[in-house]
TrEMBL record:
InterPro entries: DUF112_TM. Residues 20-437 form the DUF112 domain. Keywords: Membrane, Transmembrane, Transmembrane helix. The keyword Transmembrane applies. The chain crosses the membrane at residues 20-49, 61-82, 109-132, 144-162, 167-184, 204-224, 316-336, 356-377, 389-407, 413-442, 463-486. The keyword Transport does not apply. This is Tripartite tricarboxylate transporter permease. It holds the Pfam family TctA.
């Protein structure tokens, strides 16, 4: 009941005209940027983070939440219409949504995605309200070895599920950890990787790293692969769902959040995995299996609901443990740090008003998302016709202004483009960006927790695994690392067994 009262207080704050305005701006910006090919909510939050320094924290985080959910929906819009996902979680929407659009059913696909996002957010946020305070209470008793184990799990899980290979995932993680080392040692005060520069003694601001990797890296990548094309956007029409469509979508709308929320709440790399699992589930359970691959509306409804619920689930670990599981929550975590608010178990006690207002604003933003985007679908199609050279030139300009606003030093702009070149090289060689940004944020904290655990054990390495919780987490880490080897051995055993049966026969 305490959570309910706190949530109602959060609604009272979030429903003020000023906060409603920030929520609406966030939803509109997130959807607009998510619609544009190659630009997701992570880049949107990274670009807008320096701009919001003048805002009070509550208004800034309300807008960020709107950008997050709006960007998730916007990515599915461009997936359905142009087969070009604007966000990685929207990849699955293109598998069935784009064939629907080519058949002239783009309106139904967009409506199914919008309602799926609304239901997924509603279910996911309800679970967030019920579970987050409990997780926060349990997390208060977590010590340094346990925190280190959780962060190692986050590193391993993210690098294992993203990218084309684990080696590339770990290489991206190493790049982030190296960037995180730049500056003064937190314990001894010694300079590390500063090359004698006093400006680097404070380290590289997370905002510069995020904007460089996402905005600059993506812009350089698009510029290197820019091709002139005059493809016309697919007309959307008026979105609506008939009786047969509703009968095929209401069950996927309810099943999707149950798959998406748990994956969002644990360090498993965001919404990519649950959206694919939801798609596979709907394909197995559907009575219209012949439609899959040709435009099955279930293949849009379920994964989109799972993606939205996963977005709500990521807030659990970010708010209660200070662990980001997606690029957007990683950038939002840096925003908490910029405002001097340390996310973690005590956040619900020290900043209760901010947290519950943020959660309430997510409910409000979900309603806004549904109300605004159903009639605005034709508008988003027109945004897709902006010439890419003008689009990315604007991104480079605003990224440079934002980087300069962080510290007011020309060196920050140079660092921005150096990190942008690193981001470009990572895309060129298939290295995922998410492990890098998470390593930059969590790396220094993981190092600090490791040193604390070793100090408590007088330098004994066993002090890192001296609690049941840490041992359990490291067992999960070992299972994740050994899983590919286990999967390779299983087919061999099956084939050997089948060959023995043939010989016996």
């Amino acid at each position: 009941m305490d959570s309910l009262h706190l949530l109602l207080d959060g609604f009272a704050t979030a429903l003020t005209p000023t906060h409603l305005l920030w929520a609406a701006i966030g939803v509109l910006l997130g959807t607009a940027i998510g619609v544009l090919p190659g630009i997701g909510p992570a880049m949107a939050v990274a670009l807008l983070l320096p701009v919001t320094y003048a805002l009070e924290p509550t208004g800034a985080f309300i807008m960020f939440a709107g950008i997050y959910f709006g960007g998730m929906f916007g990515g599915s819009t461009t997936s359905i219409l142009l087969n070009t996902p604007g966000e990685s979680a929207a990849v699955v929407a293109a598998m069935e949504g784009n064939p629907m659009a080519r058949k002239g059913r783009g309106a139904q696909a967009l409506a199914s995605a919008a309602i799926g996002h609304f239901i997924g957010a509603l279910v996911g946020l309800t679970l967030l309200v019920l579970l987050a305070p409990t997780v926060a209470e349990l997390a208060v008793d977590i010590g340094a070895p346990d925190y280190l184990a959780i962060m190692v799990l986050a590193f391993i899980a993210v690098t294992s599920v993203l990218g084309k290979s684990r080696i590339r995932g770990f290489a991206a993680l190493l790049i982030g950890l190296t960037i995180g080392l730049i500056g003064l040692d937190q314990v001894t005060g010694q300079q590390r990787l500063t090359f004698g520069s006093l400006h680097l003694a404070d380290g590289i601001d997370v905002v510069i790293v995020a904007v460089g990797l996402f905005a600059i890296g993506e812009s350089l990548w698009v510029a290197a692969h820019l091709r002139r094309s005059s493809a016309e956007a697919i007309p959307v029409g008026r979105p609506w769902l008939g009786g047969p469509d509703l009968r095929r979508t209401w069950k996927p709308w309810l099943r999707g959040p149950l798959i998406g929320f748990p994956f969002g709440a644990i360090p498993a790399g965001g919404a990519e995995i649950p959206t694919f699992l939801s798609y596979v589930t709907e394909r197995k359970l559907s009575k219209n299996k012949q439609d899959f691959g040709k435009g099955a509306i279930e293949g849009v409804a379920g994964p989109e609901a799972a993606a939205s619920a996963s977005a709500a689930g990521t807030m659990v670990s970010m708010l209660t443990l200070g662990l980001p599981t997606t690029a957007v929550t990683a950038v939002m975590l840096s925003a908490f740090q910029q405002y001097g608010i340390p996310p973690g178990p005590l956040l619900f006690e020290k900043e209760a008003d901010l947290v519950w207002t943020l959660i309430a604003s997510m409910f409000i933003g979900s309603v806004m998302l549904l109300v605004l985007n159903l009639p605005l679908a034709p508008v988003w199609v027109r945004l897709l016709r902006i010439p890419r050279p003008y689009l990315y030139a604007g991104i480079l300009f605003f990224a440079s202004v934002g980087a300069f606003a962080v510290g007011g030093e020309p060196l920050d702009i140079l660092l921005l483009f150096l990190i942008g070149l690193i981001g470009f090289a990572m895309r060129r060689y298939g290295l995922p960006v998410l492990p890098t940004i998470i390593a930059v944020i969590l790396g220094p904290t993981a190092e600090l927790q490791m040193r604390r655990a070793l100090q408590l054990s007088d330098g004994d390495v066993s002090g890192l695994v001296n609690t049941p919780f840490s041992i359990t987490v490291y067992c999960i880490v070992a299972l994740i690392l050994a899983w590919p080897l286990i999967m390779r051995l299983l087919p061999k055993r099956r084939t050997e067994a089948s060959e023995e049966e043939k010989v016996d026969a």
